[in-house]
Design goal:
The chain is mainly alpha-helical. The protein has one domain (21-406). It is built from 16 helices and 3 strands. It has helices at 31-60, 66-90, 104-124, 132-138, 142-153, 160-176, 178-186, 199-230, 240-257, 273-287, 299-326, 329-335, 339-349, 351-357, 364-386, 392-396; strands at 21-23, 27-29, 405-406. It has a 3-stranded mixed sheet. Belongs to the CRT-like transporter family. It holds the Pfam family CRT-like.
Amino acid sequence: MINDEQTSLLHSNKKSYHPGFTIWRRWHVRFAAVAIFMSIINVLFASGQSIGLVLFLGSFNGLTGVYFVLFFCSLSFTIVFSLLSVWFGFKKQITRSMVAFRWIKFMLLVGVFDAANGFLIVFSSHGSRVPPALSSILIQIIIPFTFIFSKILLPKTYHWRHILSVSVVLVGIAFSLIPTFKRMHDGTTQTELKDGWYWPFIFIFGCIPGALMNIIQEQLQMKYTQEARENQRTITRFSVMYFQAVESTFQFATIALCFALDLVPNFGTSKDITSFWSSFSKGFKCFFNDSSLGTGNRCNYAGGTGALFIISYLGTYITSTFLTDHVSANWLSILSSISPLISTSFWFIFPAINKWAGVGDMTGWDIGFSLGALPIILIGMFFYRGGGTDRKTEENDHFIDEHPVELFW
């Protein structure tokens, strides 16, 4: 789906012209080069986010619950993105048309869906609720969800190569999971739903807001760009930093206001408000390695693992916002299939870290099938690239960007 002014690799008749990018208004870079680079960086950051979250939770070693992690991280994202948006506003990269009230509703929805995705997925991911063997399978449902909801909510038209692409990618995912399926069949991995049969369904339901947030994000970006082109504005792309600052603020507000979910019986991890506050305060103390918690804990690692997760999250969301704007949410969902392969490789290569985090043993079969799945998924991505743009508005839009877009927005 990554298109530039050249003919599609598979000669699709649905090309999407893009004039490329400038860096600090000086150097011109081709769109295809930037899109490929951003896709690779997105996969690496998403892998770091996945690994960092496991290590971050492991560094607390039971001192706090998952709600603290959601709260603390969303607060950190809001602060960082807000400071960055102030800088870009100072550099006049954030215009008055972007801060218009009509765009707020889109960012509100994205923030609420982002928070819902965090609550449902993170709270479901405990081993006694949805064992890792099942969660690695169920998380892939976000790909068909994204394609289906994109077709319903956005002006999308799918070429046969797009459909083939998704099919090939899902085959690649299934291939990478063969060792997991075998362990489940042999009874050598935990698949028992100790906390209730319904948790896998909650996990699947949590994938829906994860798909919707990227689709609504793309919807805002498409509407803003079309309006900016029609009005012949100089800046035709919605600011990534401003979007993330506002979206993260709504995400944080939703998580903060919904703290009572952590007290819900059979859902939250706190029995009462006293245990909630104790867990919450210990989370802050552990992150800053407060000596009052005593010795023998892992809090000296909390700052580093937290920084890894937060930086990876920031990178993932910045590149994701770029890709939904210039490529599509569907392409982003396909990219998400690669990061689990990298995470599996990481846990296999570093068994000591794996044991420390309590991930579970990775065998040569895991790494072999993960590496074998990678070329299959890349072939699927090639087919998606050959299908051209999936946006109807770009096929027939006479209002196109005539000048390169500034990359650092």
